[in-house]
Every structure is written in structure tokens, then in C-alpha cells.
Amino acid sequence: MPKKNSLTDSTLFMMFSYKGYLIRKLSSDLLWITIPSTILCAIHEYKHLDIGMNFSLPGLMGAILGILLVFRNNTAYDRWWEARKVLGGLVNTSRNFALQVNSMVPDGKIKDELQNLIGAFPYALKEHLREGVVFSDFSFIGDAMTEKLKSWDHIPVAINNLIQERLKMVLNSGGITDFQFLKLIENSDELIDIMGKCERIKNTPMPESHTYLLKVYIWVYAIIIPFGLIDTLGWWTILAVVMVYYVAMSIVTISEEIEEPFGIDPNDLPVDKICNTIYNNIQEVKTKSTPYSNYNNV
Amino acid sequence: MPKKNSLTDSTLFMMFSYKGYLIRKLSSDLLWITIPSTILCAIHEYKHLDIGMNFSLPGLMGAILGILLVFRNNTAYDRWWEARKVLGGLVNTSRNFALQVNSMVPDGKIKDELQNLIGAFPYALKEHLREGVVFSDFSFIGDAMTEKLKSWDHIPVAINNLIQERLKMVLNSGGITDFQFLKLIENSDELIDIMGKCERIKNTPMPESHTYLLKVYIWVYAIIIPFGLIDTLGWWTILAVVMVYYVAMSIVTISEEIEEPFGIDPNDLPVDKICNTIYNNIQEVKTKSTPYSNYNNV
Amino acid sequence: MPKKNSLTDSTLFMMFSYKGYLIRKLSSDLLWITIPSTILCAIHEYKHLDIGMNFSLPGLMGAILGILLVFRNNTAYDRWWEARKVLGGLVNTSRNFALQVNSMVPDGKIKDELQNLIGAFPYALKEHLREGVVFSDFSFIGDAMTEKLKSWDHIPVAINNLIQERLKMVLNSGGITDFQFLKLIENSDELIDIMGKCERIKNTPMPESHTYLLKVYIWVYAIIIPFGLIDTLGWWTILAVVMVYYVAMSIVTISEEIEEPFGIDPNDLPVDKICNTIYNNIQEVKTKSTPYSNYNNV
Amino acid sequence: MPKKNSLTDSTLFMMFSYKGYLIRKLSSDLLWITIPSTILCAIHEYKHLDIGMNFSLPGLMGAILGILLVFRNNTAYDRWWEARKVLGGLVNTSRNFALQVNSMVPDGKIKDELQNLIGAFPYALKEHLREGVVFSDFSFIGDAMTEKLKSWDHIPVAINNLIQERLKMVLNSGGITDFQFLKLIENSDELIDIMGKCERIKNTPMPESHTYLLKVYIWVYAIIIPFGLIDTLGWWTILAVVMVYYVAMSIVTISEEIEEPFGIDPNDLPVDKICNTIYNNIQEVKTKSTPYSNYNNV
Amino acid sequence: MPKKNSLTDSTLFMMFSYKGYLIRKLSSDLLWITIPSTILCAIHEYKHLDIGMNFSLPGLMGAILGILLVFRNNTAYDRWWEARKVLGGLVNTSRNFALQVNSMVPDGKIKDELQNLIGAFPYALKEHLREGVVFSDFSFIGDAMTEKLKSWDHIPVAINNLIQERLKMVLNSGGITDFQFLKLIENSDELIDIMGKCERIKNTPMPESHTYLLKVYIWVYAIIIPFGLIDTLGWWTILAVVMVYYVAMSIVTISEEIEEPFGIDPNDLPVDKICNTIYNNIQEVKTKSTPYSNYNNV
Prior knowledge:
Five copies of one chain form a homopentamer. Chain A is mainly α and 298 residues long. Chain A has a domain at 86-205 and 269-289. Chain A has helices spanning 7-17, 21-47, 56-104, 109-128, 143-150, 155-172, 178-203, 208-233, 236-258, 271-288. The first copy, chain A, is rod-shaped, with a radius of gyration of 28 Å. At the C-E interface, α1, α3, α7, α8 and α9 of C face α2, α3, α6, α7 and α8 of E.
């Protein structure tokens, strides 16, 4: 299903209406970067000094710049897409967990608590990856449970601890068999894995040398490229420098945004929406499925 | 097994007979894009203004354009191929599930319902990914079951809920052992996973900045490139611009089509055919296998 | 272990002795493609019309062509390698299955049938992916079993159905425990998965737009490139066009061959050999292992 | 969440304050590499010998250099990222293991020992990958246990041996069921897998030919490139050579650093911090969870 | 931990001391390849024929050559790295297997045999991938066992058969439970998988067309490039051709070496060392762990 492709009703529109998103972000840099090229153009045009050189060096450097940009862009996107897969796994595991608890665990207070805890985990994880868990996000687990969680530092681990304890209790009371217990525990393992993957993506920035090298390189390149263009472009050199700098830094900026995808930037993943989806799915399973006590009436 | 390669009987034919697919799609854009270059050519040819520049800037910009196009193309294809793998997994899991239900679950009404539900899941998933489940696609599950499903918002989850409930019922009635129950439940888990992966691919568009940046860039490029070509190409510049724009936008257009592969565009995956294949496989297992009651006559 | 590298005793030899494989395949195309460039050269040389242009446009187009060729080549190779992995998995799963049946299932008619069916599966799958199952390939399963299979449309699924039924029979007769049954069933699941992956690779051609776009592009390129070369190369232009076309179409042709790797083209996978290997491994396990009845004499 | 992007307050600052990290590392090389180009410039400028050539050869060689650099950079990064994933897996597995031991194993001395051993494993692994295990890192396991470990050569394997023995003891004493035993053993398996992956990354340097070829190539390139630039750049050639060499060797140097990520270089992974995180998580589970004896009071 | 980077004490040294490894390998080719360019240079310099052309064709061809070289290099490396991962998996699985046998199987002759067979498997696999199993490598399994193996064609499969038989015997004698049996069998499955992956990598050369096309292309390129360089380089053309050919063929040669990594070439994997590591780990587990009979004294 192709999105709007027509140049006239879409691309042009986007260009001027996309709230100048990237342009605003890069505007102060763009201003600074015109200074050296403007000086150069002035010298070239008014003093008639022969400061141009042929295009071979900028061409060569452009190739290396391309290599660095491709690498930056791809690794950032890979990280973003991996994060999306992990969140997709969170949806799947939560649904599976909820369906299995529903069909295996006998009705009662513990079943309720389990379903609430499964629904609370995504909310806790989400804010754990941002600035600290917001307990009001999942007040549906009840005050008693909330109090228990508050004594922990690592809330998502705490939730899994409560889940596993409750599963052990159901096992001890004979509500589930040993195998069902292990099957259900596996879902909790999976939630821990997902949490760990999110933390890894969040806490592992790109190697600092890489980001450092690329930014320095773009900056140096923006200084050197006018020498290669001024003979043929004259005053237009300034525009050319601005354009090259803009595109290169756009890629860097977008990369920096999407490689930490759990935040609330325009390009970040719809984490809040995913949490709500999970909660709604669990609620639906809870309220619309056949009552557990009817399973024996075959 | 190479497909038709001969230029004469295949490529040429395709070019003129492929219903002008891409050309029709891009025609209005192509018209618009000729305007600036035509004006430029007219100025250059009639007014003899020296507006050309050497090719270094367009060359440099072309390299960056290449980077962006490669990225766009590869990510779209990866998504398409991942979607195909997920659908392949749907086929495999459904077959496995049907074979296992066939050999493990005792004959009876529940076995029938299970096999119907397994066959219905792909149809429900397919339309869930489009515009909403079409219940007549899988009327073979019977009206009673259809009614139960209609009370749910998320039909594919509902189907899995019905499957898991039925498995629990067979377990409670002693038809299968605890281990067989878990083995069968795993297939249902797998179906949920597959559904979640499809939803992820469907609901996660490329980061908007990326698609925005690329389209703006192609547009700007089509404005700038004539300055670099006009000195050597003259009026032919218009053709060159059209060609470059056509190829670049072809890649963008194809990418947009294939990255949402569950629809009904020419390049989308054969989802309907896959659903029918699964249904036929299940029917064959159901009708042609050895009756369950004969298993003890070894 | 490097293969023959020496230019003198290997590459040169290959070039002239490799049965002109690719050259024969592309020869009619190569003939056609020389026509426009020959006409162009004739006009240029005899009429002295200035139809050349500088190399910037062909250079730019060459870069985009490169992008498309890389993509075509890599996706085809990935598919080929994935197919090889899947076939490798077939070998592994069959060996595992045979070894486990050997050590777990009590001697008798059913054990024999199981081992024969495991050995028959690769042969059935192989021709199922080509033009239809050849029953004489695996006549060792006996006529009775062959008859049973013939009533099915999808023979590989039928074989797995027979396997799972037999495993259930052994379970019912007490020959294996419930867990051993599940362990053995998992091998059958794995065979179904492998079959599904093969079918996916076989039945999913590249998106038609991609292959269409690339061929048109190569063709257009072969028309345009002479204009950029004729000033410097003269009559040699024809040779240059032929060479560029040959290399580009070689990549396309090889890609088309290897991306459907289950056939019998020179570059296809050694499917028949793999089937025989599996059969021989199973036979060896069957005939050379310790008799099952000796397992208790520890 | 974009990091600081502004050229003025960040990039410039980094450039001069990043402790001249890469520049210091490469300084002696940079000195050496200026010698040939300086001699060349002197000859060219003072003797007026026509030693320049056009840029085609350096351009061609630059393309091949780019290929080698991309390859070097990507493989190093892939290794670094794989190492990060493995360490993330270590966090996940340790947490899972601790949670499961907590909910399954009855309180007592062995439970304590198990939790200590799980916490000790990351510390032992970390130094095993460096220069030898430092027992004081995990003195919390107690002197008796430390003594047992000291008699082994491969400490991380020894820790897993102690874990598995303890699990078997709990099984024999009836504290856990057979299935719980197997579930817990799987975590130990997983730790062994993680250890093996770390050892693989650590002990498998890039193929020596690759690193050799690339360094020779950069060196040769730095000799040849002045011939292509001297006509247009004059004395500036020296600066150009230094810049090209600096960027190329930066990529090589960063690659060498990050491809062995378990050390303590600036770009290495935060291994020590990860060990502490695991230890703290385990401590929290140990001290804040519901006492095991309360599980039956449902 | 960066390796030696300094140009002065490392790269230069490597260049002249690395035993002329690649140069020796390619020397006869390099000789041959100078002939056409020498003839060309002689004609150009002495006869003053204008046989040069501009650099556009070689430049274009160089781009396509780059594509082919990147592909060759990456696929070879991927295969090498996959092989390394598989061997890493062999280490992990063997350790896991040894640890589990140690803690689960009661002491006795069969336990001993099992541990020996696990240690023997890597040695058998290693030579199976080369020229045939060398039984003296693993004489520690005893003569009786060796005799049994000698009657088989596929020794690694035979070893797994012996392992599985022994596991079944321990099960029959009540030494392990059914679940422990299945857990142990899974390790044997894993060894079979690893073996199959090694065989796949070993037995699947690159598609012949690819390697053929690349070598022909490099050869043709070495013929054509002098025409593009001779005008500017004169006699230096010969050096340029030699360098381009050397670098291109170096990549091909290294690729051919590393893509079959189980041999004993300088760049092959340290297979023998890995086998010894596994053997030593198993010995350590065998000799230093707590005696099995002590497990009940909790």
C-alpha cells in the first residue's frame, strides 16, 4: 500500500510543513558553517586570489565521508529495528502469558494478581527505561502490591519476582501441575530477557570514538570543500556547503534520535501505545473467555 | 531455473507490456519535474547565459543520494522478506498443529472444533492486518463459534483463546496427558508470536524523518542536476533529469509498496493463496489419515 | 585450502573451457545490444556528427546501476545460502531422528517403517519442489506404504502423518514413554518446518518490479553509454558496450539461477547427493548399531 | 533523545578536549608519513620536475581502500555488538537463575551457596577473559568455596560444576522435582554458552592476512597519493596526505580497539559495571522477596 | 586492547617479514600480468602511437570490480566467522555435556565411556572434515571402542550412536530418570547439528559462476586499465597494473583460504587447539569434581 507519492500533493507539502523539524535543529550549526565559506568566497571574488583547487581531494574525502555516514545510519537503524522487535516480543509474550494463565490457573485472587502483574510489567519497564517508574501508570494492581514494589530498586525485576512467587504458590496449592508451572515460569523468563535487551539498547551508546570521528570529519569537510568548488560555483559555493552539511548532519541527527528509541522524540517507538495495547488484550482475555469452571463440562 | 533472460523475447516485451505500471504511478511527478529543467534549458539555449557548472557538486550529491537509496531499498526488502518468513512460519505451525491434534486428540466434537479453529486463524489474521476480519472467510467453523468470536475486539487472540480452552478441556477429560497438552499449547503460542510479528511489520512504518529526507533530497537533486549537465547535453538535459528522477523514485515507490506486504498491491505477498494452502493441508490431514481408534492395533 | 589460483593454469583455462556457459546464454542479447552502438559509431566516424557528450551522465547512471546490481546479487546469494542451510538442517534432523528412533523404539515392524519413512522424506521433498514426487525414488518403503501415500496430494505432509501415527502407535503399545514420544514428534515437526522453508524459497520470486526495473535499466544504460564513450574510444565503443552489458547481465543471470536452488542447473544445490547421504547414514545406523535388546545388559 | 549536536558547544569542544586521544596514538605514524610527501613537494616546488600525474590512479586506489576500510570497520563493530549482546545475555540469565533459585529451592545453606555462585560467575568470567581470575572480586562466596575453586585451571567451568553439583544435591534431598532440576540446570548451560561465546570473541582475531593487507595498502596509498595531488595542491599536499592517513588509520585503530571489547580501553564495554549490576540484582532478590516458607499460605 | 599500530615498528616490519606470503603465492601471475602492459608501454613510448584513452571506461569497470570484490570478500568472511561460531558451539556443547554427565550419571564404566566419547568426538570430527579420521588422536577411548568405530563409514555419527546407546542403557538400569535421559540426549543432538553445519560449510563451495566471473573480470581489467593510464603514467603504468592486480587478487586469494576454514592454512581456524581445549576441560571436570556418591550428604 504505497503512501502518498505524488510530488505535488505530498513531498512539497512535507518540505514546508513538517514544522521545519530538522532545519530548526541544525539552524545554529548551519549559520556557523557558512562563515568560513563566506570569507573564502569574498576573498576569491574581491581579491581574485587563486585559492581554488581541483575537485580530486574533496571527491576522495567525500567517499570516506560516505562510508562513515552509511555506517552511522545503518547501525542506528539496526538498533531501532531491534528495539522494535524486542517490544513486539513484549506484546507476544504478554499475550501468551495472559492466555496461559487464563486457561491453566484456577480462578481466584492469585489469578487476578497474576493477570494484573503481567499487565503492569510493560508500564513499569517503559518508565524504568526513561526516568524512573511511575506507579500511577499501573494503579490497577492495587495499593498493597504497589507498596511491596516500592521497597525495591529495580521495579521490573520485582514484578517478575512477585509473578514467580505467585506461580510457586499456585503450584504448592495443587492448582497447576509441575509442567504447567514450568511452562508459565518460562513466560516470566522471557519477560526478563526482553527487559535485559531493552536495557542493553538503552545503556550502550555507540563507541564514542565513532561518533567523535564522524562529527569532526563533517566539520573538516565543510571547511575544505569550498576550495574545490569555488572556481566553478563562485558565490553559490556557500549554498553548496550548506546543503552538503545539512544532508550529512541530518543523517547524524536522525541516527542519534532513533538509536535511543524508548524516549518520546518524534521518531521514537510508540512505547506508550504498545503498553496500552497489551493492557487491553489482557483485559479482553480476562473478561470475555469461558469461565475456568466450565472446562470440565465437555 | 533461470527465468526468461533473452532481451528480445522478454525484457523488451516487459518494458512495453507491463501495463506501464511504474510509469503511470510516477507520471504526474515526472511532468512537474521537467518544468524547472525546461526553463533552464530555454534560458541556456536562447539567452546564452552561462548557467552551467562543472559536474563535481552533482557528482558528490549523487553519491549521498545513492547511500540514501540503498538504505531505503534494503530496509524495505528486508521487511518484505521477513514478512514472507513469518507467513512461511504460519504455514509450518498450522501444519504441525493439525498433524499433532490429529495424532494426539481423541476423535470427537472438540477435535473437530480445534481443527476448524486452526484453519480459521490464518483467514482471521489476514483481514485483521487489512481492514477488519471477514467472518464469512471461515464460515466452516460454524455459527455458534462465529458468534462467540464476534463479541471480541481482537479476533485472532480470541481464536487462540478458544483453542487453548478446548485443549484444557481435553486435558481435563483425560484425552491427552499433561505433556501432550503443553506440546499442543506451544503451537498456539507460536501462532500468537506469528500474529505479533505481522502486526509489528504492519504497524511500524519507517522513521518518518528518513522517508522525508529522501524525498526532499531527490526533489532538490532534480533541481540542481541540470546545472551540471546543461553545458554538455543541451536540450537532452530534460531527458537526463527525467531518467534520474524516474529511477530514483522507482526505487522509493517499490520500497513503499513492498514494505507493507500484507495488502493486495501487485508486489504484495500472496497472503490469500497461503491461507487456502493451509486450509487444504488441514483438510487433507483430517480426511485421509488413519482413524484415531486404529492406533492401538499394532 | 585455496583452490587453483594461478592465472596460467586455471583462470585462462576456465575462460575458454567453461563451455562458454554464460556467453552462450547471453549471446543473442549481446548481438542485439551491439546494433545501436554500431549505428552510433558509424554515424560518428563517417558523418562526423558531434554526438558524444562528456562522461558525467553515464558515470552517474553507472553508480545507480551498481546499487541495483549489488542488491540483486546479494539477495540471490542470501537465498541460495539460506536454502543450503535448510538442506543442511534436513541432513541433521534426519540423522538425529534416525539415531533416536534407533535407541528408543523397540525393534519390530513399526521401527522399520519409521526408519524407511525418515529415509523417504528427503526424496519426496526433493521432487515435490520440482515437478511432482517420483515414488520409485523411495521404493524401499514397500508397496503398501506407497499406496497409502498415493492417495494424498501433498506427499511430504503425508509421510509426516504416517510417521506421527506410527509414533502414537508405539506410545499406545507402551514401547516408549510419553516424553520419548514428544521428543520424537519434535523431529517430525522439524521436518515439516524444513519443508515449509523450502517451499517458501521456491514459491517466492523476487518482487517483479525489482527484476523488471533492473533489466530495463541495463538495457537503457547500454543505449546511453556509447554517447559518453564515443569521443575517446571510437569504434572500440562497441567492445566497451558489449563488455559492460556482459558483466551486468552475467550478474543478473547468475542471480536468477542461484535464487531457485532446488533445480538441476549447473549452479544449483546438490540436492540429489544430499538425499543419498541421508539414506546412507540411516542405513548405517540401522545395520551397524548395537541390537536394541542388548541395552539392558549393562 | 539526541545527544549534543550543536557544532559550537559540542563538536568543537570535543575536537580539542577529547584528550587528543586518537591524535596521540597516531602521532608517530603521522610524523613518518609526512616525510615522503615533504620530499616530493620540495622536489616539485624547487626543482620544478614534472612528477605529478592525473588523479585517476589515486582515485581508483581510493575506491579499493574504501572497500577494505568498510569491511574492517563493520566486522569490528559487529564483533563489539555481538559481545555486548552476549554480556546482555549474561545479565538476563543471571537474573532468571537467581529468581528461579529463589522461588524453587528451599531455604538453607545450599540455596545460599547457589546464589553466591551465580553472583560470582560474572566476576570470574570477566577476569578469566583478561589476565586471570581475581578471587578477591567475589570473596562473598566464602573461603571454603574459594579453596575448592583454586584447585581448578578453568575457574568459570569450576563454578558451573559447583552449581550443578549443588542442584543435584537439592534434587536428591527432594527439595526440587526432576523438572525443576532440569529447568535450573538449563540456566547453568546458558552460562556455559555465554562463557564460550566470550572466549570465542576474545580468542579469534581477524584473519591476519586481512589486517596485514589493509595496513600495507594504507601505507602504499600514502606514498602514491601525493603524485596525484601535487600539481593542484603544491605544499598543501602534505596536509592532504596527513588527513587521508589520519582518517584511514583512525578507522583501523578504533576497529582494533572495539573488536576486543572485554578489556579496559576507553571504547571497551563496561564489563565491571555489568558485573556489579548483576550482583546487586541478585542481592535484591535474595533480601527483599517473600520468604520461601510463606509460599504455602495461599 | 589495540595491537601494534605504529607504522615504524609493526607495519613496515610485517611488510618485509611476513614471509612474502601473498607475494609468493601471486608471483607467477604477477609476472604474466606485466607482459601485456609492458608491450603496450613499449609501443606507446617508442612508436608514439596514440593508444591511450581517457579514464572513464576503466573507472566504470573499476566500480563493477569493486562490487564483485566486496561480495567475494564478505561472503568468504561470513563463512569463516560462521565456522568459528560452530566450533565455539562445539566447545560449549561438549562442556555442557561433560558437566551434565558428571552430575547426573552414576559412577561406573558407562560414565567413563561416555566422557571419553564426548572427548573423542571433536578429534573425529576434525579429521573427518579433512582427509579421514585418525583413530590414534583419541586412543584414550580404548581399543574395544576403537574397533567398534572402525566398522562404520561415518565415524562421528558412529560416536553419537555409541553415546545414545549408552545413555539408553543407563536409563534402562535406572541410573537416570526419563527426563534426565532426554536432557542428555539433547546434547548428542546438538553435536550432530554442529557436525552437519561443519559439513555444510566444507562441502558447499561458492557458486562456480561467481568465482569464474570474478577471475575473468580481474584478468580483463588488467588488460584494459593500461590504455586508460598510459597517457599520464608512461612506464609507471606497469607498476600501476601490478599493484591493482595484486590488491584485487590478494582479496580473492585470502577469500579462498578463509572460506574453507577447517584446513591447516595460515589463516584457517585453530581447530586442533580447540579439540585439545575441550579434552582438557572434560578431564578437569572428570578428575576435580565432587564424587557422585557424596551428593546425598547434604
